[in-house]
Amino acid sequence: MATEKLKVCIFKGDKVKIELRKPIKFGNQKLRAGVWEVRSEILSSPHIDYFLVVGESAEKDRLASTIKEFESRGYSSSVIKYKGIWFAGIGPFRVPDPLQILSHHSVYFFPEVKRPAIAKVIARNISDGRTVQLAQHFYVSPGEPFDLIIYNKVGRGFHFEFEERQSYEGEIEFTIGYDGKLLLINHIELERYLASVISSEMLVSLPMEALKAQAVVARNWLLTAAIKHHIGEPFDVCNDDHCQEYRGIRDGNNIARKVIDETRGEALYYKGKLVDTRFAKVCGGVTEEFNNVWGETFYSCSIFDGPGTYNMDLQKEDNFRLWIEQPPPAYCNTQGDTEYFEYGRKYFRWYETIDPYALREIINNKTGIDIGYPVRVNPLRRGRSGRILQLQIKGEKGTLDVTGELKIRAILSPTYLPSSAFYVKYNGQQFILRGAGWGHGVGMCQVGAAKLASIGWNYRQILLHYYPNTEVRQIHVKKEEGCVS
Ligand SMILES: [Zn+2]
Ligand SMILES: [Zn+2]
Q: Which ligand is closest in space to the CA of residue 229?
């Protein structure tokens, strides 16, 4: 991963709309200027088994006991070597949907391709309907990035989804995945990618020091966590919130490049090891422990995102309700004088309602389980930030236990709830959810960081606030290469 180039999947799907400002070579064909739809047509469907990751190690032998344990519980297993690391998975599953295993932390799957799809790639000109058959695999490098525009979705599946015209630096690889989907993969230098990511993740109108803190945590994340997100895929990371939101060339890239230059190669270490730094939009007042969301790691902490200390135990139901009703003076408890403070105003505390009939259908659609008319939604366990880690939904016909913050956010909404830090009341007709924060809440709170920068904190102070006891060091690229690739 510490190599210079990064492969970012910028589109995966059946068809994508693109616009060419000039004729551009698409493999062995030259497409003329205009708007085109490029699609994959599956000629023969694939057979793929998906395995849920339950263990990883640099040595294959060390996975044996984990595999044995799961096999004794009736699962089949598979191992795969990806970027120098061995992963053990259990399965097989038809679709890589994390909701299928409701009692497990991990949401990483890898495919075992028994038979890849066979597909052809067709480009259709939108104005005259003329079609051209393209090659299965080719690279496109427009003379100027803006000669090629991709109409892409931002925030896929989330409440804020929208379409955007995007352009990219570097080459774009067009290919067909093993499942027959069309893949567009942008090959881009790592620091350039980071410059784009920090202008996508937060607005470049942010105070400089908040952007610099964001640049450091984004670099850490890439070097530690990104490797696990797309095991067995022909790219390193994807372009949406699942990895990091990446929207190609952005208006603010000049500022972002300055930010990257001033923090080039800097990353956070704890006891000599690179920290898997996560971050989220609005913590809601207290950050969540890493271990509660993604499983065991050597660095996991929770902090009060405000001045001084706060000693209320939010794992207790009564305390949590009070915390929601009487918010503390947290840094992300902001009012909307700029767009990012507006996030704080909207999501520091939020409110949603769900109709029980709709909830029954959502559960049915997402899990295939019919629990009947839902009568009660009970938090079983909360983390340090009050985020629910285990939830029970009781219906007239059955009970469903859901483990994991993202799965909990998915099960109570047609898309996702802003966070899993909420409590539930039933008013006789509807479930009423009152919650705090936007996102998983682990690591740096982006709105809180913006607030701190606006009152004069520098990026190193901000980083130490969200990641106490860590230190900023230069990455020695050569050394890291030995560890991760
Ligand atoms: Zn991803
Ligand atoms: Zn916060």
A: 1
How far is C-alpha 311 from the chain's CA centre? 31
User: What are the beta bridge partners of residue 113?
Assistant: 48
132 in the same domain as 37: yes
Same-domain pairing of 321 and 339: yes
194-204 pLDDT, tens per residue? 888 887 655 66
Look at residue 55 and give its three-state secondary structure: strand
Q: For the purposes of burial, counting CB atoms within 10 Å of the CB of 114, is it exposed (0-12), middle (13-18) or buried (19 or more)?
A: exposed
Domain match, 149 and 12 both: yes
Residue 330 is part of which domain span?
278-466
Report the 10 Å Cβ neighbour count for 326. 7
Measured from the Cβ of residue 42, the count of other Cβ atoms closer than 10 Å reads: 15
Question: Are 414 and 378 in a shared domain?
Answer: yes
Which-ligand-closest: CA of 239? 1
Cβ burial of 258 (10 Å; 0-12, 13-18, 19+) is: middle
Q: How far is the CA of 440 from the centre of ligand 2 (A)?
A: 11
Let me know whether 38 and 57 are in one domain. no
In this structure, are 238 and 287 located in the same domain?
no
Ligand 1 center to residue 244 CA distance, Å? Answer: 7
Handedness of CA 185, 45, 14, 35 (dihedral sign): positive
Q: Are residues 282 and 402 in the same domain?
A: yes
Q: Is residue 25 part of a domain?
A: yes
Residue 443 CA to ligand 2 centre (angstroms): 10
Residue 412 CA, ligand 2 centroid: distance in Å: 23
Could you tell me if 102 and 135 lie in one domain?
Answer: no
Q: Is residue 72 part of a domain?
A: yes
Per-residue pLDDT reduced to its tens digit, 464-479: 999 999 999 998 654 4
Residue with tokens 């200390």: 309
Element (H, E) at 166: strand 162-166
State the pTM of this model.
Answer: 0.80
CA of 229 from ligand 1 middle (Å) equals 5
Compute, in angstroms, the gap from residue 331 CA to the centroid of ligand 2. 6
357 alpha carbon – ligand 2 mean position (Å): 34
> Is the CB of residue 51 less than 8 Å from the CB of residue 89?
yes
Of 63-67, 205-209, 274-278, 420-424, the least confident: 205-209
DSSP secondary structure letter of residue 304: B
Q: Of the candidates 115, 131, 154, which is a domain's last residue? A: 115
User: Ligand 2 centre and the CA of 72: distance in Å?
Assistant: 43
Determine, yes or no, domain membership for 135: yes
How many Cα atoms sit within 13 Å of 95 on the Cβ side?
Answer: 7
